[in-house]
């Protein structure tokens, strides 16, 4: 069994892949083997998480997820724990594996009741074995029976640690979105863990998945999955870049940041966003960083960033640069976008550049044409910006983040970083990646500009676009994960910390 940490990559398998792996494993094993392994793994983790537990409350659903819970119940009972199973199945409709485990739990002498038979304490354990991958996907999910929701709410409100079997019940395997009706009103009161069985599912790591799942563990049930079936990948750290001794500032690429609408234009000075991106590019290791503020803006002397080279937009040699365009660009960015799209060799498009493209068909055509010229482009939308580009709602994007990122890739032929909890990186011909680092402290103004600048630096240093996107997103999140508790995470400090490693 493995605790999933952000320090190593992992393949992720969607529902179809997991079913295929399950099917072929089950065919080569004696009946009930997988469920027995799943139940034993669940019981072992429960005991490790709650070593002093006197009581366990296990809510078991009508399918094989419930079967795993029943199997675990028998083990925990035999270990001397007072186990209560609330079982929501009906005997006539039980799958054979779960029927077998029901009998084993009964034979072991487990109590069956509607609620725990003794009051739970913080030392005890609750197990959610109501629903796993059998939840009907997407819009096909039917509304859950109200008493199921009441039980799930009681599990989350209990003072005991909560262990979810395979998936938090109601979370969709492939998307990490809650199925209709399942989104909880409140998070779990105590620590929450999820034990993924056989495979790690993408839904555990993006959209609502990270909040719902808590700490994720994997037990492969001793089945070696065929990695070619992976539908996505959880990224890990990239190898540290080696700098040759005989190198110079031109060895690590030139990044140009184009953005920062001036105060004179509409009374909103947005130079700060461009400055944050430029500062991040500089501290992330770019050899030279050029800053072209729009509306002929100039940096106030007080900013004190002597390494940044200010340029008028017209003076930029776009064909030779990695251009980061959009940060704080406001309305002014639309005026430079035709030239940027037509000439920049490598282009990161962020924020206002994406909004300008979303509202202008000619710019969309110019963006799509870049791929036909084999020029690299990376889009870095948050869900609302992605929705504008796709002509749908942000809710639709969040309902299937992997699919939304891949739709942008198909439409524009570029790499797409869809930001948010569990940022998705998708690219032409690539298995999409989900980033495991980052936390809610990044939800503050300017951190997106910092990411755009870091991305420019990682790309300019020589990585190919998809790898640069994965490494910059990973590092941006890792900085936040390592941020000192007592220090406010502000974007300017994040930019200065974005050292290249
Ligand atoms: N994959 C593996 O390798 C292994 C899998 N194992 C375990 O099996 C789990 C998958 O089991 P599963 O296929 O029986 O599905 P599961 O999650 O129990 O749910 C199905 C039940 O829920 C019901 N139901 C669905 N939606 C509903 C709704 N909205 N509201 C109400 N009811 C709803 C559905 O009803 P039906 O649609 O059939 O009428 C059916 O009764 C998997 O997650 C893992 O824990 C391990 O034991 C071994 C290895
Ligand atoms: K579950």
TrEMBL record:
Domain YjeF N-terminal, residue spans: 18-229
Biological process annotations from GO: metabolite repair; nicotinamide nucleotide metabolic process
Cofactor: Mg(2+); K(+)
Chain positions recorded as AMP binding sites: 419-423, 448
Protein residues bound to (6S)-NADPHX: 64-68, 166, 273, 326, 382, 449
Cofactor note: Binds 1 potassium ion per subunit.
SUPFAM superfamilies xref list: Ribokinase-like, YjeF N-terminal domain-like
PROSITE patterns xrefs: YJEF_C_2, YJEF_C_3, YJEF_N
Catalysed reactions, semicolon-separated: (6R)-NADHX = (6S)-NADHX; (6R)-NADPHX = (6S)-NADPHX; (6S)-NADPHX + ADP = AMP + phosphate + NADPH + H(+); (6S)-NADHX + ADP = AMP + phosphate + NADH + H(+)
Keywords tagged on the record: ATP-binding, Isomerase, Lyase, Metal-binding, Multifunctional enzyme, NAD, NADP, Nucleotide-binding, Potassium
E.C. designation(s): 4.2.1.136, 5.1.99.6
Domain of life of the source: Bacteria
Residues given in the record as K(+) binding sites: 65, 128, 169
Single GO MF descriptor: ADP-dependent NAD(P)H-hydrate dehydratase activity
InterPro entries, alphabetized: Carbohydrate_kinase_pred_CS (IPR017953), CARKD (IPR000631), Nnr (IPR030677), Ribokinase-like (IPR029056), YjeF_N_dom (IPR004443), YjeF_N_dom_sf (IPR036652)
Cross-referenced PANTHER family: ATP-DEPENDENT (S)-NAD(P)H-HYDRATE DEHYDRATASE (PTHR12592:SF0), ATP-DEPENDENT (S)-NAD(P)H-HYDRATE DEHYDRATASE FAMILY MEMBER (PTHR12592)
HAMAP family in alphabetical order: NADHX_dehydratase (MF_01965), NADHX_epimerase (MF_01966)
Subunit comment: Homotetramer.
Record-stated family: In the N-terminal section; belongs to the NnrE/AIBP family.
Role, per record: Bifunctional enzyme that catalyzes the epimerization of the S- and R-forms of NAD(P)HX and the dehydration of the S-form of NAD(P)HX at the expense of ADP, which is converted to AMP. This allows the repair of both epimers of NAD(P)HX, a damaged form of NAD(P)H that is a result of enzymatic or heat-dependent hydration. Catalyzes the epimerization of the S- and R-forms of NAD(P)HX, a damaged form of NAD(P)H that is a result of enzymatic or heat-dependent hydration. This is a prerequisite for the S-specific NAD(P)H-hydrate dehydratase to allow the repair of both epimers of NAD(P)HX.
Name of the featured protein: Bifunctional NAD(P)H-hydrate repair enzyme
Taxonomic source organism: Simplicispira suum
């Amino acid at each position: 069994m493995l605790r999933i940490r952000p320090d190593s990559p992992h393949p992720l398998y969607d529902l179809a892949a997991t079913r295929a792996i399950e099917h072929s494993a089950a065919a080569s094993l004696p009946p009930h083997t997988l469920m027995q392994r799943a139940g034993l793994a669940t019981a072992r983790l429960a005991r490790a998480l709650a070593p002093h537990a006197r009581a366990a409350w296990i809510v078991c659903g009508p399918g094989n997820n419930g079967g795993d819970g029943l199997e675990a119940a028998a083990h925990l009972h035999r270990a001397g724990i007072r186990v209560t199973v609330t079982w929501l199945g009906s005997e006539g409709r039980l799958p054979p594996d779960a029927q077998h485990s029901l009998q084993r739990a009964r034979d072991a002498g487990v109590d069956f009741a509607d609620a725990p038979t003794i009051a739970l304490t913080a030392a005890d354990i609750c197990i959610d074995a109501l629903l796993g991958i059998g939840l009907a996907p997407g819009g096909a999910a039917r509304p859950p029976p109200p008493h199921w929701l009441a039980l799930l709410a009681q599990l989350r409100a209990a003072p005991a640690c909560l262990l979810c079997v395979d998936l938090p019940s109601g979370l969709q395997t492939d998307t990490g979105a809650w199925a209709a009706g399942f989104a909880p009103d409140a998070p779990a009161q105590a620590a929450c863990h999820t034990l993924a069985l056989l495979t790690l599912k993408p839904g555990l790591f993006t959209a609502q998945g990270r909040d719902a799942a808590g700490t994720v563990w994997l037990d492969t049930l001793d089945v070696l999955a065929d990695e070619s079936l992976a539908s996505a990948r959880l990224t890990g750290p990239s190898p540290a870049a080696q700098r040759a001794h005989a190198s110079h500032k031109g060895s690590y690429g030139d990044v140009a940041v184009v953005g920062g609408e001036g105060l004179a234009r509409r009374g909103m000075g947005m130079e700060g966003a461009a400055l944050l991106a430029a500062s991040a590019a500089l501290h992330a290791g770019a050899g030279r960083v050029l800053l072209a503020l729009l509306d002929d803006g100039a940096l106030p002397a007080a900013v004190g960033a002597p390494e940044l080279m200010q340029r008028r937009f017209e003076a930029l040699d776009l064909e030779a640069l990695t251009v980061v365009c959009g940060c704080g660009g406001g309305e002014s960015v639309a005026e430079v976008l035709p030239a940027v799209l037509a000439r920049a060799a490598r282009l990161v498009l962020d924020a206002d550049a994406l909004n300008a493209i979303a509202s202008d068909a000619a710019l969309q055509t110019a963006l799509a044409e870049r791929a036909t010229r084999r020029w690299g482009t990376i889009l870095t939308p948050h869900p609302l910006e992605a929705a504008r580009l796709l002509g749908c709602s942000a809710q639709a994007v969040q309902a299937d983040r992997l699919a939304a990122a891949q739709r942008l890739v198909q439409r524009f032929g570029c790499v797409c970083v869809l930001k948010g909890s569990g940022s998705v990186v998708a690219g032409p011909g690539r298995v999409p990646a989900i980033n495991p680092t980052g936390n809610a402290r990044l939800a503050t103004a300017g951190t997106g500009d910092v990411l755009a600048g870091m991305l420019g630096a990682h790309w300019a240093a020589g990585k190919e676009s998809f790898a640069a996107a994965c490494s910059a997103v990973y590092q941006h999140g890792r900085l936040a994960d390592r941020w000192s508790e007592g220090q406010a995470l502000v974007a300017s400090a994040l930019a200065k910390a974005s050292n290249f490693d």
